[in-house]
Amino acid sequence: MKSIFLGLFLTGSVLAQPPVKRPIQPSDILRLQNIADPQVSPEGSWVAFTLSTVDKEKDKRNTDIWMVSWDGKQTVQLTSSPDGESSPRWSPDGRYLSFVATRNGDKDGQLWLLDRRGGEGKKLTDLKSDLEAYEWAPNGKSIALVIRDKDYSDSAKTKIRKPYVIDRYHFKEDTKGYLDRRAAHLYLFNVETKKLDTLTTGSYDETSPVWSPDSRQIAFVSNRTSDPDKNENTDLYVIEARAKAPMKQLTTWGGSDNNPVWSPDGAQIAYLRSTAATNFIMYDQPVLSVISASGGEPKLVSVALDRPVRNPRWSPDGKSIAVLVDDDRRTYVGAYDLASGKLNRLAGGDLAFADLEQNSKGGWATLMSKPQLPTEIYAVENGETRRLTTFQDAFVAPLTLASVEGFTSRSKDGTQVENMLFRPANVPAGQKSPTILFIHGGPVGQDNFGFDLSRQLLAGGGYVVAGVNYRGSSGRGLAFCKAIYGDWGNKEVADILGATDYLVANGIADPAKLGIGGWSYGGILTNYTIATDQRFKAAASGAGSSLQLTMYGSDQYVTQYESELGLPWKNTDKWLKVSYPFLKADRIKTPTLFMGGEKDFNVPIAGSEQMYQALKSLGVPAQLIVYPGQFHGLSVPSYQTDRFDRYLKWFDQYLKTSVAVLGTGK
């Protein structure tokens, strides 16, 4: 009897034990749900948002619209169509949710209306061209639409497309392909009569429409210089909400003015202005600015902060403006008191916020992620954050994720660089480990304390992973960001090598098992680094380039090239200098995996093909992976998992095998 009870006790104990967790792996990409576009209902009781999940059979993501109550106690799925929906927006009375979908054989996205009390969505528009954006008038009677002119270029009756006829300076762009001269214009849609009125015409694009609180005017953004292709000089304009109304220009800054938001009383417009007044502003950080709705000199609210701000949102009383601030590996929520000019921090820490929407009752809805938790929706109230959604709990439940910490390194010239370190679970303290320097793209951007799927996946393969916020990154001030202007592959490489030296000197990285990789500018810097230093035993260069001279006219960055490097036939020496990974490819000894999208116009696959060919000619182990039909970012789920499977197999081959064995060929 005693043994029976003991057996029952042991059986019960085993059943009560929590399931064994495992490292994250590439196939987990298919389980990850993406939350985006939170929108607070007018009365402040609900937050609508999009949730995308992977349809494994169709090998694509499908996006549906959900809503969660402000207290976080109720979560409701509103759409479940296999076609997918986007851009949920509340009608001003809170009764309806509108969204964009392509259903029932439509070729272009249309506006649909969903009664929040239940029922099927009803189609609201029957547009014959691309709907790019929309916004409800506060009175609920009209909707401002941004519609691109109809494409009449291909009326071929067969499947053979007519030739592209191109005469623009900026003539190609990733995902869009070759660019024609169709413009995006503002239209006014009457919700009751379904009548569509034209507000703007001509050869210029109009974007980002926002209504004045009294529903009489629309502010928008446009570049109306003589040739918008050759600069980034966008300005704010206002127009009355009626056909054939004249428009008025509000700003005259030589750089960019974007993201307009009306004050609650309609007297002012907050917006983001570039720091520089030049025609090319990549190395820049937006400044929160406020201008009278009738024009005049703007007030530069955040200019003294020397940090990029975004997502400006007025408080309900109009006395402050909340923003997201990128600051040294963190993104926090702050609010500027307009009377004093003081910036108050509303929420922050070792995490990253990514969106911000006002609640009319007070507080803010936001997207936020933590080092070991992907993005969820939170409420920010009284200096505290409160979680509203819990979709990611199921994702992280079976996983052991890497611990995440910051570290500071110094480069050869003494520059201090702030970085991120991912330590695999169950790695003993003080153990030297195979280490991968995984470099972020941009270059403007930063590795932060938000959830980082790429580095977690590499760490799940047993690697210590480091992210380096090299010069050119944001979050450290404008001078730090602009330090690499026209001088690529110099200071950034010094910062990457400085971080590598730190990891080796502190017993974190095994110096005989170092790898490096990255995508986009991270791939470009991978090429620069392995052409500079031979300590790395394996590399993975994704969507990168090296022979920069051949990128002129091949990618979408002609304005940047001519601004930073000058014309190739006049500044040839400068172009050759930044092309050194290809021109000095015989210095490279690192086995390298090259990857890219077949249709990438951002960094064309030719950049990877050239380096692959060079290393094959030199007898250095190399492999080239081309993802069919993909642009700069991979969108097919199976390709996303394939990329990380290949990363891990490549690094395992060279970093988890004895160096001595590799050297002898045994």
Automatic annotation (TrEMBL):
Gene Ontology molecular function: serine-type endopeptidase activity
Source taxon at top rank: Bacteria
Keyword Transferase: no
Keywords: Acetylation, Hydrolase, Protease, Serine protease
Entry keyword annotation includes Protease: yes
Pfam families: PD40, Peptidase_S9
Coiled-coil ranges (or none): none
GO biological process, any: proteolysis
Residue ranges constituting the Peptidase S9 prolyl oligopeptidase catalytic domain according to the UniProt record: 451-656
Biological role: This enzyme catalyzes the hydrolysis of the N-terminal peptide bond of an N-acetylated peptide to generate an N-acetylated amino acid and a peptide with a free N-terminus. It preferentially cleaves off Ac-Ala, Ac-Met and Ac-Ser. Also, involved in the degradation of oxidized and glycated proteins.
Name of this chain's protein: Acyl-peptide hydrolase
